[in-house]
Specification:
5-stranded mixed sheet, 297 residues, TruB_C, isomerase, globular, 21% helix, 9-stranded mixed sheet, tRNA pseudouridine synthase B, Alpha-Beta Plaits, alpha+beta, tRNA processing, PsdUridine_synth_cat_dom_sf
Length: 297
């Protein structure tokens, strides 16, 4: 079995627990042993799209980390927590509540290339130690500012004249922390805030449409029917041009050899032989080389 199962992650479990649930479903369905990995961490308090790669698709899981993502999230104004979400303790409060015109003016400042400081409670490493481990021990966490891109930022809902909370939709580049974005929007409005709801609606090419619940995953596993929800390996490469090979070309790539003069545009390509994935390849200077090979026949 090789491909993707898209989970609609609920509140509570972390990404590694979701991977364990998929492994359990594979065992209960007598699918044998397969490599399983997730395509992008979601915090326990976040819900939504979590792509899980199975078999040869795990070779593409790293690409999901680099993919753009879309989130819906709610900011509650008036209190900032140390974790920047509901899980933490309040460390700052403000009586200020922004107005809708002020919010609309500020949102434009957070669209496009921006700089942000990641949350102290994050998985980034400081001198070899996770930032959240340092923070939980009461240590000072100093994280460098990073450049990210917010491709779009839309207001989904707002409450009242003076806003207690708002819900936004953000389409962002890799490495963007929504909790930091929420913190910075609140500060720009002259108040403080934290995230009370975070839902990922898209990760790379994957959306909520094919996503299933953990209960459905368990049901399909016990019913030996996981194929019903399995997306093909190539679904993770929907943004990559497809390259059809002949048998000789596929044989050379499978041996790790380069192809000379293949009719392909420069850049990445998804090489197949009769719809069977062969490799993720890169073409440049008249040569095509393997980036990731797939052991499929």
């Amino acid at each position: 079995m090789h491909g993707w199962i898209i989970i609609d992650k609920p509140l509570g479990p972390g990404s590694t627990q979701i991977v364990s649930a998929v492994k359990r479903a594979l065992r209960e369905g007598d699918y044998g042993r397969h490599k399983v990995g997730h395509g992008g961490t979601l915090d326990p308090l976040a819900t939504g799209v979590l792509p899980v790669a199975i078999g040869e698709a795990t070779k593409l899981a790293g690409r999901m980390l680099d993919a753009s993502k879309r989130y819906d999230f709610t900011i509650r104004f008036g209190a900032q927590t140390d974790t920047l979400d509901l899980e933490g303790k309040v460390i700052a409060e403000s009586p200020v509540r922004p107005t809708l015109p002020a919010l609309e003016a500020v949102l434009a400042r957070f669209t496009g290339p921006i700089e942000q400081v990641p949350p102290a409670y994050s998985a980034l490493k400081v001198d070899g130690e996770r930032a959240y481990d340092i923070a939980r021990k009461g240590g000072d966490v100093v994280l460098a500012t990073r450049k990210v891109t917010v491709f779009s930022l839309q207001l989904l809902s707002a409450s009242g004249g003076e806003l207690d909370e708002i819900t936004l939709s953000a389409f962002v580049s890799k490495g963007t922390y929504i909790r930091s974005l929420a913190r910075d929007i609140a500060l720009a409005l002259g108040t403080v805030g934290h995230v009370t709801m975070l839902r990922r609606t898209k990760a790379g090419p994957f959306t909520l449409e094919p996503a299933i619940s953990l209960d459905k995953l368990a049901e399909l596993g016990k019913g030996h029917a996981l194929e019903e929800t399995l997306l093909p390996l190539g679904a993770g490469l929907d943004d990559i041009p497809a390259l059809s090979l002949n048998a000789d070309q596929a044989g050379r790539l499978r041996k790790g050899l380069r192809l000379i003069g293949l009719a392909a545009d420069d850049g990445l390509g998804f090489a197949t032989l009769d719809d069977v994935p062969v490799a993720l390849v890169e073409t440049g200077g008249g040569e095509t080389r393997v980036v990731r090979g797939f052991n499929l026949e």
